[in-house]
Amino acid sequence: MKAISGAGLGLRREMLDELLPELPDEVDFWEVAPENWIPLGGKFNEDFERCAKQASLTTHGLSLSIGGPEPLDHRFLNAVKHFLERYDIPLYSEHLSYCGAEGHMYDLMPIPFTEEAVKHVSERVKVVQDVIERPLVLENVSYYLTVNAQMTELEFINAVLSESGCSLLLDVNNVYVNSINHRYDPKAFIDGLPSNKIVYGHIAGHYEEAEDLRVDTHGADVIEDVWELLAYAYRRHHVFPTLLERDFNIPPLADLLEEVRRIKAIQQQVFKEQAGVA
Question: In CATH, what is the architecture of 7-275?
Answer without folding.
Answer: Alpha-Beta Barrel (3.20)
